[in-house]
Specification:
The complex is a heterodimer of chains A (93) and B (502). Chain A is mostly helical and 93 residues long. Chain A is 35% helix and 4% strand. The longest helix of chain A is centred in the first third of the chain and has 18 residues. Classes of the chains: A mainly alpha (93), B alpha/beta (502). Chains A and B meet through helix 1, helix 2 and helix 3 of A and helix 9, helix 10, helix 11 and helix 12 of B.
Chain lengths: 93, 502
C-alpha cells in the first residue's frame, strides 16, 4: 500500500525520523489508513466544487492600524537557546 | 452529603450545600445572594480536586495560588459592583493559551511553554471575572478520542475508572462529571467536545464554525476547530457560549452569533421537525446505545416534536474525508514546532536539519507523528488531487446533504457516540477503530454546523449522549430544543465516584 521508500521520503519531508522498530509498525498502519481513505476514489464527484470554506465569508478586512505587540523579551522568553534577544540555531547544513 | 466531600455555604435551615455538585448558574446565584464567597467556592473545588483527581487525573495543572488570589479580588469588591459571573470557577483545556500559565497541549514538545498572551476566549472570561482553576488533560494536540494520547497522564472516566473519558477534551468532560469544576472549555475538531461529553454524561456544545474566535487556540485543523463549553446543564452551555462568542479582528474566520443564546426556557417541541439520521442508527450503534436513543425519540414525540428518518448518504464517507483533511491541515500547522522559538529542543545536533528532525521525533507522540505522516503524504507531489482534492469534494457533498436535510427538518438527531465509554487500552492498538469512534460527530465539523450532546440515559451503568445538530448559527434554537429534551429526560450528570469517596 505504501512502500518503504515512500515512508522514508514522507518522513524526510515532515522532518521526522523513525527507528527501525517504529517503522515496522508504522508502515502497515499507514497502509491500512490509506487503504481506508481510498474509498473516496470510488465516488463520482465530477462537477462538485472543492470546499475551500464551509461558512461563506469573503474579503475580511480590518483597518491597518499599529497596535502594541509583544516586546522582544516577551517574544523570545520561551526560546530554548536565546542570545542577545535572538534565537540561536545550529549551522545550516 | 457524603463524608469527605467538600462543603461550604449554609442554607437558611442550617443544612450545608455541597457547592461542587451545583451548576455554574446556581453558583452564580449563591454568590449574588452572599450565601457563599468566591473564596469559599474556589476552595471547595480545590479541595474536591485534591480529594478525587488522583483517581480521575483530569487536571494537568492546578493553579491554586492564582485561583485563590483571583477569588480574593472578587470578594474584596462590593457585590453590587460585580459582573454577573464574577467569582464562578472554570477549568480550561490545555490547548488554550493563558498568559503566564504553562500550556502544553499535552505534548512533550510544548513542555514548559508559558504563553506571553491570552487567547481571546480567555481574555473574555478574565474580563467576566471567572476563576481559572487550572489546565485540563487532553489527547496530544487534540488528536484522539480517548485522552490516552496525552504525553503526561491517562484520564479516567468518573463513572468507571477502568474506562476512558473520551477525547480529545477528556479532561474537560471528566472534571465536570467528577465535580472538579462546575464547567469547562474544550475544543472540537471532529467530535472532541461532544464525544467525551457523551461518554462522561455531561453537556457539550460545538458551536457553528466562526461563532467563537480561535485566537490563542493552538491549531490542529484550522478549517474544523471550534472552542465550546462542557457543562452540567444546557442553560450553562448557553451562558458560557454567550461569554465566549463574538467576532474578533484577530481571527479573520470569526463571525460571532447572529443572536445571543440567552437563557433557554423552552419546555415543549411543538411545531419542530427532527430528522433521525438513518446512517447513524441501527447497526451503526451498540444495542444499549440504540435502546436509549429510541426512548429519546419517544420523549421528543411526547414533547410535541415530529421525528422522521432521513438519509444523508454521504455522511458515511465523513471519517474517510476527515482523515485526509484534518491530518493535512495538522501537518502544516504543526510545522511550527521546530525547536527554535518555544518548547523542547534536542541538544547537540550537528546542523539545523538534524535539530529539527531529532526535536520533532522526540517531542511528538506516536499518534501525532502518524497524522503528520498521513497529512504530508496526502499533500505531497503526485497525491494531492487523489487525496486532498477528492476529500474536499466529498466535503462539498456532505455539506449539500445537510442543506437538503435542513430544508425539511429544523434539527437532526443521532446518538453522539456509537458506543458507551470503552476500556482503557482497548482501541490503542488499532488507530482505525479509534477513528471510527467519531463516526457520528465528524460530518458536523466538515459542514461547520453547531452540534450539542446532552445526557440521554444510561446503558450498563454508563452514560449515553443524544446529539442534536442545527443549521449554521441556530445555537439559540438548538439550545432551547436541547433544554426541552433535558427537562423531560432528567438524567443525573454528576458521577457517583463511589470508589474514591471515603
Amino acid at each position: 500500500m505504501i512502500s518503504r521508500q515512500e515512508v522514508d521520503h514522507v518522513a524526510r519531508l515532515a522532518r521526522l525520523h523513525f527507528e527501525e522498530e517504529e517503522l515496522g509498525r508504522l508502515q502497515p498502519e499507514l497502509g491500512r489508513i490509506i487503504e481506508y481513505v481510498q474509498q473516496l476514489s470510488e465516488l463520482d464527484l465530477s462537477g462538485l466544487d472543492v470546499t475551500s470554506h464551509a461558512v461563506a465569508l469573503k474579503n475580511v478586512l480590518r483597518p491597518d492600524e499599529p497596535v502594541p505587540g509583544l516586546t522582544q523579551e516577551e517574544a523570545t522568553a520561551n526560546g530554548p537557546h536565546v542570545e542577545r534577544g535572538q534565537f540561536v540555531v545550529p549551522k545550516i547544513g | 452529603m457524603t463524608a469527605g466531600r467538600a462543603a461550604t455555604g449554609e442554607r437558611s435551615d442550617g443544612s450545608a450545600i455541597d457547592v461542587t455538585t451545583l451548576t455554574a448558574h446556581r453558583c452564580r446565584e449563591l454568590l449574588a445572594a452572599g450565601e457563599v464567597s468566591a473564596t469559599e467556592l474556589t476552595r471547595a473545588y480545590l479541595d474536591r480536586i485534591a480529594a478525587v483527581d488522583e483517581a480521575v487525573q483530569s487536571y494537568l495543572l492546578v493553579d491554586e495560588p492564582g485561583a485563590l488570589a483571583a477569588a480574593a479580588t472578587v470578594d474584596a469588591k462590593p457585590r453590587a459592583e460585580r459582573s454577573p459571573w464574577e467569582g464562578v470557577p472554570i477549568g480550561l483545556k490545555d490547548i488554550l493559551c493563558v498568559k503566564g500559565m504553562e500550556t502544553t497541549c499535552a505534548s512533550r514538545i510544548l513542555k514548559g511553554y508559558v504563553p506571553p498572551y491570552d487567547a481571546t476566549v480567555i481574555s473574555k472570561l478574565r474580563a467576566a471575572g471567572l476563576i481559572f482553576l487550572g489546565k485540563l488533560n487532553m489527547d496530544e494536540f487534540a488528536m484522539g478520542s480517548s485522552t490516552e494520547n496525552s504525553a503526561f497522564k491517562t484520564t479516567r472516566n468518573p463513572w468507571d475508572l477502568d474506562r476512558v473519558p473520551g477525547g480529545s477534551s477528556g479532561g474537560s468532560a471528566a472534571c465536570v462529571a467528577a465535580s472538579e469544576a462546575p464547567w469547562a472549555l474544550g475544543t472540537d475538531t471532529g467530535g472532541s467536545i461532544r464525544q467525551p461529553a457523551s461518554l462522561c454524561g455531561v453537556v457539550g456544545l460545538k458551536p457553528t464554525y466562526g461563532a467563537v474566535s480561535r485566537y490563542g487556540l493552538i491549531a490542529f485543523a484550522s478549517s474544523l476547530d471550534q472552542i465550546g463549553p462542557l457543562t452540567r446543564d444546557v442553560r450553562d452551555a448557553a451562558a458560557l457560549l454567550d461569554l465566549i462568542a463574538g467576532r474578533d479582528p484577530r481571527d479573520s474566520t470569526s463571525i460571532g452569533l447572529s443572536e445571543p443564546a440567552g437563557v433557554p426556557d423552552r419546555g415543549d417541541l411543538e411545531g419542530l421537525r427532527f430528522g433521525v439520521i438513518k446512517e447513524f442508527v441501527g447497526d451503526a450503534c451498540d444495542p444499549g446505545v440504540r435502546d436509549v436513543f429510541d426512548s429519546t425519540v419517544d420523549a421528543i414525540a411526547l414533547l410535541g416534536g415530529v421525528c422522521e428518518e432521513v438519509s444523508l448518504p454521504s455522511v458515511e464517507r465523513g471519517v474517510a474525508a476527515y482523515y485526509i483533511i484534518a491530518p493535512s491541515e495538522a501537518s502544516s500547522n504543526l510545522a511550527r514546532f521546530d525547536g527554535v522559538r518555544y518548547g523542547h529542543r534536542t541538544a547537540h545536533s550537528q546542523d539545523l536539519y538534524e535539530m529539527y528532525t531529532r526535536t520533532r521525533s522526540q517531542g511528538f507522540g506516536t499518534e501525532v507523528k502518524r497524522r503528520i505522516m498521513i497529512g504530508t503524504y496526502a499533500l505531497s507531489a503526485g497525491y494531492y488531487d487523489a487525496y486532498y482534492a477528492q476529500a474536499q469534494r466529498t466535503r462539498t457533498l456532505i455539506i449539500q446533504d445537510f442543506e437538503q436535510a435542513f430544508s425539511r427538518f429544523d434539527f437532526l438527531i443521532s446518538p453522539t457516540s456509537p458506543t458507551v465509554a470503552f476500556k482503557i487500552g482497548e482501541r490503542m492498538a488499532d488507530p482505525l477503530a479509534m477513528y471510527l469512534s467519531d463516526l457520528c460527530t465528524i460530518p458536523v465539523n466538515l459542514a461547520a454546523l453547531p452540534g450539542i450532546s446532552i445526557p440521554a440515559g444510561m446503558s450498563g451503568g454508563l452514560p449515553v449522549g443524544l446529539q442534536i445538530i442545527g443549521p449554521h448559527f441556530s445555537e439559540r434554537g438548538l439550545l432551547n430544543a436541547a433544554h426541552a429534551v433535558e427537562q423531560k429526560l432528567q438524567v443525573e450528570v454528576v458521577a457517583p465516584l463511589a470508589e474514591v469517596e471515603r
